[in-house]
């Protein structure tokens, strides 16, 4: 299964370490906190418990400010001292969090397996809950959502046992991330809102702002751009004033993505430039790979495939050894750019490299962390489906098919066309079918958008009230999987039930505000869909 966005860099690991030695000021000024903490450390007795706790807090502050190098240096110095098992647990855990932030997932996994063993030695239920949460984040980043979900739920159960509201909030946030990644967006919204409520009640505005940005990402995926922008704007001023440059950078990058999706290229340029300025305030010489990918896509939209490919190759040079969804996105974007510019040989070469990465890196990495999972004894030793083997087969097969198609296009470019009339007729029929499928998705997506905006109800309620779609119960939660298949081309059935789509759209029109700006557009799309569907033999039922 593919993870989007891509893009899950800043998950919430942090829990309170102990009673605060370096008390943070109420303005949440991280730079000021760092200076205050260093002053307090200078007055404490070396190697004392208070000194240890203060230095650990200082390392966390460095990370919050975006300076992972200083954070790691502080932690390594602590680890070189004679520490208790509990102190070893805290230092090792912070090193694992830092490795995760740098996308060093396997290294992070190693640290967290150590903390799991230390928590078991200490027989500390709270630490065991932390470890489950931390490990779940790594498995999520590596694409094993089944294991991640199991670990998150275990962490949440422990938090409930301990009545630990902070951990409940963090786990709800992470469950929201998984729901977002598997496109269960309504579930993600519920989880993020509950997490935000708990963080706000607990007075942790930093985590509350983080959750709001995550919620904005969900609205972005739902194409509700105004809601996403409003959420971001509520957090930006506070993020900038507090010196939370990492989170502010993330917010600006999301604004750039939204502008790109709306084809507002000048605005996308503006937000990318702001993101770069904000990121320059972070003491980190590494290039933001997600920003690089977005900039490349912007170049592609501007028709500058040459510069786009330079950026994409730069990203691959940094990521080709990493088993991550970001690497896959770079490969896919590069192949698309090369195909658009009719560089079919180069596109084939890119797909071959992508195929090699899928065969080697994914298999090796999957075997590695599955082995570590058993060694850590995190889950019961029971037969498990080899999800990664299935994923590899599907991904490699997809890359193979893409290669065949590109080969065909390349050969077609270099040879004279045969049977032109027949080919033209075939292409016209194919285009009609593709147009129909695209329109089906547009009608369903627009209908759902109007429904959610005007009624403030979910897709589940639309399915129940319209009686057009089956509602299932999966793991104790309501699902509308059949309806959701009609929201994207790649999941659309081969023979779509277009009459259900039209009936659903009419239901939305009849039960929603007629003054909605998109109602007229939806009516036009319904008429067009009826004409196209009736002209195709695939849509006669």
UniProtKB/TrEMBL annotation:
Pfam families: TPR_MalT. It comes from Pseudoalteromonas aliena. SMART domains: TPR (SM00028). Gene3D superfamilies: Tetratricopeptide repeat domain. InterPro entries: Bac_ResReg_Asp_Phosphatase, TPR-like_helical_dom_sf, TPR_MalT, TPR_rpt. Residues 127-369 form the MalT-like TPR region domain. The keyword Transmembrane helix applies. One of its GO terms (cellular component) is cytoplasm. PANTHER family: TETRATRICOPEPTIDE REPEAT PROTEIN 29. This is MalT-like TPR region domain-containing protein. Its main location: cytoplasm. The keyword Flavoprotein does not apply. Keywords: Cytoplasm, Membrane, Repeat, TPR repeat, Transmembrane, Transmembrane helix. Belongs to the Rap family. The chain crosses the membrane at residues 388-408. SUPFAM superfamilies: TPR-like. It is found in: Cytoplasm.
